[in-house]
Structure formats: C-alpha cells, structure tokens
Specification:
The protein is of the alpha/beta class. The protein has helices at 2-22, 48-60, 72-82, 101-114, 140-168, 189-209, 227-233, 238-245, 252-265, 273-282, 292-325, and strands at residues 39-43, 64-69, 90-94, 122-125, 171-176, 214-220, 223-225, 249-251, 269-271. Bound molecules: NADPH dihydro-nicotinamide-adenine-dinucleotide phosphate (NDP) and 3-Dehydrosphinganine. It holds the Pfam family adh_short.
Length: 327
C-alpha cells in the first residue's frame, strides 16, 4: 500500500516536471532594477490610484513623472502636494485624453522635451470615469463617453508613447482594468464593458510587442478608497455595493505599490487578495503567462474554480432578487 502511494507520488512528480518543461512561461521580461530617472507617464495622475503612483515614483524611486488629466486646478493642487519644492521632475499637463489623438501626441512630445528628451519608459493608463447605474438609466451618450475615456483614451496614450519605446527596444505599458473587467456586475453595464475592452487590447498588443521587448501589465483592483470611489458611492445601487463588498476595500497606496511591483517584473496580470487571485486564475483564458506558478495554478484549479464561481454567482443573483424587495 505504502509502496503504491510512493510510486503514485513519484509518477505525479515526474508528470508535473514534464508538464512544466513543455509549458514554460511564454516570455521572460527583465526585472526593472533602476527606476531612478525613468520617465513615467501617468494618465489620471491627479487623483486616487494615479496620484499615489506618481507620489511613489517621485519620492521613493526618484523617477521623472508626467501627469495627464483634465482639471487644471486639481493638477495644480496635485503639483503642490507631490512636489512642494517645484521640482522639474514632475510635469502636470492639462489634457483630455479622449478628445483627439493629436492633442495627446502633442502632450507626450511636450513631456519628452520637458524631461530632457527622455523617452517614456513606463506608461500607466489610470484615467477613467466610473459610476454604477442600472442599464436603462444610462443614456446612450454616456455609454459612448465612458468608452471614449476609459478605452479610447488608453489607446491614444499608448499610441503616442509607443514609437519612442519601440525605437529603444524597451518599455512597460500598464492598463488599469478592475475586478469588474473580469466578471459582469449589477450596475456596471457601461463600466464593465470598457474594462473588458482593455483586456482584448492588452492581449493583442502583448503579442505584437513581446518581440520589441515591451511588456504589458493589466491590473484588476477591487474597490479602492479614492475620490473617484467616494463620488461613485453617492449614487451606487445597493446591489452593486453588496456585491463589491465581497472583495473588500483597499487603499490607493496598497493598489499602487503592487502595480509598481508587477510592472517591474513585467507580469501580464496584477491582482489583489485571495478573491482577486482566484478570479484572475479563473478568467485567464488565452492570456500570456510569465511564471511557472501561474501555469500550475491555472491548469490544476480552473475546473474547481468554475464550480466555486457558480456558487458565488448564485449568491449574487439571490442578493439582487432580494434587494428588489427592500425599498
Ligand atoms: N477606485 C476604485 O474602486 C477602482 C478603480 N479602478 C480603476 O483605477 C483607475 C483609477 O481610479 P481612481 O483612482 O479611483 O480614479 P479617480 O476618479 O480618483 O481619478 C481619475 C483620474 O482620471 C482623470 N481623468 C478622467 N477623465 C479623464 C480624461 N478624459 N482625460 C484625462 N484625464 C482624465 C481624472 O482627472 P480629471 O477629472 O481632472 O480629468 C483623475 O485624475 C481607473 O481606471 C479605475 O477604473 C479599478 C478598480 C477599482
Ligand atoms: C472563484 C472566485 C470567487 C471570486 C469572488 C468575486 C467577487 C467579485 C466582486 C466584484 C467586485 C468588483 C469591484 C469593482 C471595483 C471598481 O472597479 C469600481 N469601484 C470602480 O468604479
């Protein structure tokens, strides 16, 4: 009996070794050791997660930072907060990333000139708008606006930064998706779609850019304590609130720190907490992998995770039904 168990274990180990050999990670990004003097462009860097990222890059790593956002007053306030001594390492530019590609391109060119012709090393697409609202209460133009900012804005910024990355054969591009970019949630018909769109963009783009040594990170945070979330909470349907609560609430600093870590590693995905980890494992589909542990978790657990997810989903459907009865 004992012998049979030992043999089975050895067999399983051998099989696993062969599998690991056959299924090596798709690519091996080089770890970004030195962030000092790196030029980091952060869209939506005047608030929330983007602002926290700007703070960390500036103060912890000594990087050069360019922030793009619309509201000039908020940008000015952000400049005073992050760089009270008016360092020229921080450039804040007022631009709407969703309006015209030319405008975005001019802003990026301006930023490169400002930072002593340093091309963009890291682009972080954090700018977005979001609110939770039932489908029928969302106007058609609101769907268009959200897609323009959250999706097209990220496309424009990426296109404007890419040529200089390609020329040098190095670069990192980050897209802020959300756990709501991994599953549909009550009240997020417009928002989820924009975040799902980023997944298609990121996967296709990584296939084009891996040979150029440019790596993409797709980030899936749960609710994060930011001015954007406070605004969203003012009119959030209780169904959305209850579903989101199951994944907890993080601080912008927690989210930003892990984004920097994952970007340095060049990981394709960046997720948070146990729910985030399981959700990312479950929804990996045809995403690229960069580590053996991802391959093992995904191949061993997806079936089981699907069963768990169906239970979770059932509880969400129940909760939504119940909520209709509560005035
Ligand atoms: N907070 C959360 O719970 C979660 C957030 N996320 C994602 O993380 C990212 C950051 O979120 P968060 O920090 O909460 O957001 P905030 O609402 O706090 O900040 C959004 C930033 O984007 C900028 N922005 C919005 N529209 C435009 C535009 N058209 N052009 C340029 N800049 C724009 C805003 O500045 P201005 O208005 O002045 O232009 C602001 O700086 C978003 O992509 C969001 O979807 C993901 C999961 C959870
Ligand atoms: C098998 C694994 C089980 C996993 C459980 C899944 C729980 C999902 C909760 C969904 C939370 C969505 C948060 C969106 C936050 C966001 O993007 C907004 N705050 C921005 O507006």
């Amino acid at each position: 009996m004992l012998l049979a168990i030992i043999l089975a274990c050895i067999g399983a180990l051998a099989l696993l070794t062969i599998l690991i050999y056959l299924y090596r990670p798709l690519y091996h990004p080089k770890y970004l050791e030195d962030l000092y003097d790196c030029h980091v462009v952060i869209t939506g860097g005047s608030s929330g997660i983007g602002k926290e990222l700007a703070r960390l890059f500036l103060n912890e790593y000594g990087s050069r930072v360019t922030i793009l956002a619309r509201n000039s007053e908020r940008l000015e306030e952000c400049r005073r907060d992050l760089s009270p001594n008016l360092s020229d390492r921080l450039l804040c530019l007022s631009v709407d990333i969703s309006q015209s590609y030319e405008e975005v391109e001019n802003a990026i060119q301006h930023a490169i000139r400002h930072h002593q012709d340093k091309p963009v090393d890291i682009l972080i697409n954090s700018a977005a708008i979001f609110y939770a609202r039932p489908f029928e209460q969302t106007k058609p133009e609101e769907f268009a606006e959200m897609m323009r900012i959250n999706y097209l804005g990220s496309v424009y910024c990426t296109q404007a930064c890419l040529p200089s990355m390609k020329r040098r054969g190095t670069g990192r591009i980050v897209f802020l998706s959300s756990q709501a970019g991994q599953l549909g949630v009550f009240g997020y018909t417009s928002y989820c779609s924009t975040k799902y769109a980023l997944k298609g963009l990121a996967e296709s783009l990584q296939m084009e850019l891996e040979r150029e040594n440019i790596y993409i990170t797709l980030v899936f945070p749960p609710d994060t304590d930011t001015p954007g979330l406070k605004e969203e909470n003012k009119s959030k349907p209780k169904e959305t609130q209850m579903i989101n609560e199951t994944s907890g609430l993080l601080s912008a600093e927690q989210v930003a720190k892990k984004i920097i870590q994952s970007t340095r590693k060049g990981s394709f995905t960046c997720s948070y907490g146990i729910n985030g980890f399981l959700l990312t494992c479950l929804t990996c589909g045809a995403q690229p992998v960069t580590t053996v542990s991802e391959i093992i978790c995904q191949s061993l657990f997806i079936g089981l995770l699907r069963l768990i997810m169906l239970r979770v989903l059932k509880s969400f459907y129940k909760l939504v039904k119940k909520a209709k009865q509560i005035p």
